[in-house]
Design a protein that fits this description.
- By secondary structure, the chain is an alpha/beta fold.
- Helix content is 44%, strand content 16%.
- It has a six-stranded parallel beta sheet. It has a five-stranded parallel beta sheet with strand order 2-1-3-4-5, with helices on both faces. A two-stranded antiparallel ribbon has the order 7-8.
- Helix 1 crosses helix 6.
- It is globular and about 65 Å long.
- The N and C termini lie far apart (57 Å).
- The relative contact order is 0.10.
Length: 408
């Protein structure tokens, strides 16, 4: 039996975690042995990440380290989004012997399996497989200390109400969820995004395939976490929609609780009535609406199509329908041409959400924004990132105090 060592650069990225788990299940079904000691491996498979230039460098250094440790004849295999984004980086870094796979099923050519990659069913995270690899994604956010968390939990019990912080902790806790991929790619073409180069146009899974995974994994005490590069793009290629998918799943599992990862605001505007219906009929624990900026001027420069004022209105109405849903967002600060007034609008928009991921803009070769003028100084970008994170943290505390005073 041959040994396989599997590593992942970024299992906090849920699509990455799904792929890593899928590789592991494929390896197991073909009777290879997963090992955690790289020196014993006949194959080393790394699920890469090309989201930032820093992660590209980490990937290269990982393969350099692996090359110095493996036994003679061991094959080094690169999978994941970096290969389509900058697969040339390995040869340029003196790693010509790394097998760079541009499609996942190309792994069949190297392993000669009895069961082909595309014949292994399911797109989900199998935590037992990740445990065999020594990989984990199940951790609670450390934004606030356990002492603060437990203090607010005690206040919740005392006041008999839920709070923004308590609900946020449950959302970021990975142990109470099952992760199921519904689609990859998206319909957008954002000026800053390099991931589109790797994932391409939206590719939705069929309702039957998604239901098969839900049936296999569903547990009443765990919520269903829907995974996609833009979950809201689901169905654009198969004449369906994300709200329709969730309503269909809910009809089979009426007590299910859902977490929705990455929803482009474009779809909230386009399918507004469908989202209202979904929130009325389904228990939505959290939804991540990736607005990226509070300024319509910057949103337009990003090649994104929605009105931020309208998105805020929709979110306010969704909150009234489902008060205990946690609304999350992503913000990208320091985009080329971002004025101080645009940044202030972003800070104000953060206060409309329960949680925010604040990201610092960086140039990525191959994107439209890389060629834009009016670049923001790195020191300014880092300062805005710091301020954005502080505003986010203060906002969570203020929302929590409000929940204790007036209820949620």
């Amino acid at each position: 039996m041959q040994n396989v060592f599997i590593s992942s650069l970024h299992t906090r990225c849920k699509p990455n975690a799904v792929l890593t788990s899928g590789i592991g299940r494929y390896i197991q079904k073909n009777d290879f042995n997963i090992v955690q000691d790289i020196t014993k491996a006949d194959y080393v498979i790394v699920n890469t990440c090309g989201f930032t230039a820093e992660q590209e460098e980490v990937c290269v250094n990982l393969f350099r380290s692996a090359k110095s440790k493996v036994k003679p004849g061991c094959k080094l295999i690169s999978m994941g989004c970096l290969n389509k984004i900058a697969g040339h980086i390995f040869e340029e870094s003196g790693l010509e012997d790394v097998h760079v796979l541009h499609e996942e099923n190309e792994i069949d050519n190297l392993l000669s399996p009895k069961i082909k990659y595309d014949d292994v069913p399911g797109k989900f995270v199998d935590e037992t497989v990740l445990e065999r690899m020594g990989i984990g994604i199940y951790s609670t956010s450390s934004i606030y200390s356990d002492k603060i968390k437990n203090f607010f939990y005690s206040l919740e019990n005392l006041r008999g109400t839920k709070s923004a912080l308590g609900l946020l902790y449950k959302v970021v806790d990975q142990n109470n969820k099952v992760f199921i991929q519904v689609a990859s790619g998206c319909v957008g073409n954002c000026a800053y995004c390099i991931i589109k180069k790797a994932k391409g146009h939206i590719k939705s899974r069929s309702l039957e395939d998604v239901l098969n995974d839900v049936t296999k994994l569903y547990q009443p005490d765990k919520s269903i976490y829907l995974v996609g590069d833009d979950c809201a793009s689901y169905g654009a290629d198969i004449k369906s929609s994300l709200p329709k998918l969730i309503l269909d799943i809910n009809s089979h599992f009426p007590n299910a609780v859902f977490n929705i990862n990455y929803v482009s605001p474009f779809w909230l505007e386009k399918q507004e009535s469908e989202y209202f219906e979904m929130f009325q009929k389904v228990n939505i624990a959290s939804i991540n609406v990736t607005v990226q900026s509070g300024s319509n001027y910057i949103i337009k420069k990003m090649n994104r199509s929605y009105d931020i004022k309208n998105i805020k209105r929709i979110i306010r109405r969704l909150r009234k329908i489902s008060p205990r849903t946690v609304f999350l967002t992503h913000m990208l600060v320091g985009f080329p041409g971002e004025r101080f007034s645009d940044f202030l609008k972003t800070l104000l928009t953060i206060t409309h959400f329960d949680g925010s991921g604040i990201f610092a803009y960086s140039d990525r070769k191959g994107t439209a924004s890389d060629k834009m003028n009016n670049k923001i100084a790195l020191s300014t970008i880092k300062r805005r990132e710091f301020i954005g994170n502080k505003v986010y943290q203060i906002n969570v505390i203020l929302r929590t105090l409000k929940d204790f005073i007036v209820g949620r």
